């Protein structure tokens, strides 16, 4: 297992260009089985989760060619409907093949998906939505999906689940009649998936809102699509640069609303930036101070369904807060185990009080010191990297492959910004 060796207190400065959105490209790869024509995706990140999804598709018979950050997929000779148990256990988004594979090829057998252990991650909404479209679901050691005829339906989700919305949309595009999804997820990656499906010939309205309407078509064609930039990666690099007092330029940023959502939370920590012509500039040596609410009340950063602050940025924002003067509460509403990694930050000297599994109170700034750590999940792993970049002395972070699942060449790109980080195999 690889590890990161980090010598901290190096100011990060430089320019980055974000890779494609991890949470957008994974369902896009699954959508390739909806057509026998080529699907060409540009700006595909070189991360482990993408590699596992590609291996899953190849095992089914999808033709895959990859050149740099461009992937071409063609599912004209699907040989299998049963996914590899080992590959399913290595990636959460293996479940996203249930909708499109069953919709076009009649059946699918999928083993329980893997992914980060950040609390219970329900699949109930997936099964409810697919059943509503006419797909029979059988449970056992695996999940077996089978359909005779897909028919549109009115679907009310009990939670605005991103992956459930994506799974249902990918099945509904081939269903007879109209499907409406109420309480649909509207995150940027859901919008990007819908935009690609429309290019393939799908009829989708309401993407970006909580009410999506789909008029089913008999078949889809190929498409050429550029995956949008990853706003979670952008937020992570901003947190790293701001925490070390550095200066950062980000070229090719996500659309304005996405950056505004991220910016509202970062501004509470005294982090400000300017944007001009699609380029973000974070000035150096900002005076990081918690901005109190009206009446000098203590503020909080809380996540939620879009356009609330993304849960995937809570971990890195929390570490940034340890370098900010003042007190602030973090309220994690989405996953009950997301905050468990804070024990490691406390060991490094962070002034953190964990109130319960969902709430953490931080009183900064803290002088962090190097430590020997392990990455528990993708986002917590990146947060530990940022903590090590701020800390005095050397830190060792085990399980570097966990961070590699969501961040492309993170050690190389941080070195380009001036970090003292090496990978040891």
Distance between the termini: 6 Å
CATH homologous superfamily identity of the largest domain: Enolpyruvate transferase domain
Strand runs, count: 23
Average pLDDT taken over every residue: 95
Tell me the structural class.
alpha+beta
Strand content: 15-25%
- In CATH, the architecture of the largest domain is Alpha-beta prism
What's the shape?
Answer: globular
| CATH class term of the largest domain | Alpha Beta
Count of discrete domains: 2
The radius of gyration over CA amounts to 22 Å
Q: Low-confidence segments, ≥5 residues, pLDDT <50?
A: none
Task: Note the total helix count.
Answer: 14
How much helical structure, as a percent, in the residues? Answer: 25-40%
Description:
The protein is an alpha+beta fold and 425 residues long. It has 2 domains: 212 residues, Enolpyruvate transferase domain (UDP-n-acetylglucosamine1-carboxyvinyl-transferase, Chain), CATH 3.65.10.10; 205 residues, Alpha-beta prism (UDP-n-acetylglucosamine1-carboxyvinyl-transferase, Chain), CATH 3.65.10. The protein contains 14 helices and 23 strands. Strands 21-22-1-23 form a 4-stranded mixed β-sheet. The chain has a 4-stranded mixed β-sheet with strand order 2-14-16-15, with helices on one face. It has a 4-stranded mixed β-sheet with strand order 4-5-3-13, with helices on one face. Helix 6 links the parallel strand 9 and strand 10. Helix 4 runs parallel beside helix 6 and helix 8 runs parallel beside helix 10. The radius of gyration is 22 Å and the shape is globular. The model has no long low-confidence stretch (mean pLDDT 95).
């Amino acid at each position: 297992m690889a590890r990161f060796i980090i010598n901290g207190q190096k100011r990060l400065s430089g320019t980055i260009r974000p890779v494609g959105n991890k949470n957008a490209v994974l369902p896009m790869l699954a959508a390739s089985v909806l057509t026998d024509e080529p699907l060409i995706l540009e700006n595909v990140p070189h991360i482990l989760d993408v590699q596992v999804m590609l291996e899953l598709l190849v095992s089914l018979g999808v033709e895959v060619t990859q050149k740099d950050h461009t992937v071409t997929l063609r599912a004209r000779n699907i040989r299998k409907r049963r996914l590899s148990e080992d590959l399913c256990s290595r990636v959460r988004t293996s479940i996203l093949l249930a909708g499109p594979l069953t919709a076009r090829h009649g059946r699918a057998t999928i083993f329980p998906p893997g992914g980060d252990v950040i609390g219970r991650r329900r699949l109930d909404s997936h099964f409810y939505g697919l059943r509503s479209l006419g797909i029979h679901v059988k449970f056992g050691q695996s999940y077996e999906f089978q359909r005779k005829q897909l028919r549109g339906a009115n679907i009310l989700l009990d939670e605005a689940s991103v992956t459930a919305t994506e799974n249902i949309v990918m099945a509904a595009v081939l269903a007879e009649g109209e499907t409406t999804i109420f309480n649909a997820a509207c995150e940027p990656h859901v919008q990007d998936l819908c935009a690609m499906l429309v290019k393939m010939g799908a009829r989708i309205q309401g993407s970006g809102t909580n009410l999506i309407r789909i008029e089913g078509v008999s078949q889809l064609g190929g498409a050429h699509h550029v995956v949008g930039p990853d706003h979670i990666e952008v937020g992570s690099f901003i947190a790293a640069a701001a925490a070390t007092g550095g200066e950062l330029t980000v070229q090719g940023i996500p659309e304005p609303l996405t950056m505004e959502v991220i910016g509202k939370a970062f501004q509470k920590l005294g982090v400000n930036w300017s944007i001009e012509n699609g380029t973000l500039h974070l000035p150096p040596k900002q005076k990081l101070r918690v901005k109190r609410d009206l009446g000098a009340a203590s503020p909080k950063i809380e996540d939620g369904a879009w356009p609330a602050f993304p849960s995937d940025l809570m971990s890195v924002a929390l570490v940034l807060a340890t370098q900010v003067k003042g007190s602030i509460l973090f309220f994690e509403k989405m996953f009950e185990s997301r905050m468990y990694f804070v024990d490691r930050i406390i060991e490094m000297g962070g002034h953190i009080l964990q109130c319960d599994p969902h709430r953490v109170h931080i009183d900064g700034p803290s002088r962090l010191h190097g430590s020997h750590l392990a990455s528990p999940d993708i986002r917590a792993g990146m947060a530990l990297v940022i903590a090590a970049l701020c800390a005095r002395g050397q830190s060792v972070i085990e399980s570097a492959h966990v961070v590699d699942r969501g961040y492309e060449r993170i050690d190389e790109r941080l070195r380009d910004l001036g970090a003292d980080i090496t990978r040891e195999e």
